[in-house]
Amino acid sequence: MAGAGRRFDDVLAAAGRDPATVDRYLMLDPASPVYSLSGAGFFADALARAAEYGFTDAVTYWPRSAGWYAGDEAVLDRIAADVLPGLQPPGRGTDSGARP
Question: 75-98 in b/e burial notation, b at 16+ Cβ within 10 A?
Fold first, then answer.
C-alpha cells in the first residue's frame, strides 16, 4: 500500500499537482475481516494504520441491525465523541465542503 501511495505522489508531481493537496480516501471494511465499527479501539487502530499509509480520510458503513455490518450505534457515538477529536488534523472536521 505504501508503494502505491508513492507512485500516486509521483504521478501527481508529474502532472504538476502538489500531492499534499489531494485527499486520499480509504474504505475500511473491505480491507479487513473485522467490521471497523466493532469497537471504538478497533476503529482508532484502523484509522491510525490508514494515516500511516497516507490516507487523509476513512469511510465505513453505518451500523446495521443484522448482517456483516451489524453493529451498535452507541459504538459510533463513542467514536465520534472520543476517537475522532483526537485524530483530526487542525482545520479538519469543520469542512464547509470547499476545496482550495
Answer: bbebbeeebeeebeeeeeeeeeee
Please name which of 30, 28, 87 lies closest in space to residue 60, comparing C-alpha atoms: 28
Alpha-carbon distances of 94 from 25, 49, 88, rounded to whole Å? 17, 23, 10
Q: What is the DSSP letter of 73?
A: H
Q: Where in the chain are the domains?
A: 23-87
Q: Is the pLDDT of residue 30 over 80?
A: yes
CA distance 37 to 47: 11
Q: In whole angstroms, what is the distance from residue 78 CA to residue 9 CA?
A: 34
**What is the tens place of the pLDDT at every residue in 41-91?**
999 999 998 888 889 999 999 999 998 899 999 999 999 999 988 876 644
| Residues belonging to the chain | 100
How far CA 20 is from CA of 13, 16, 77, in Å, comes to 10, 12, 30
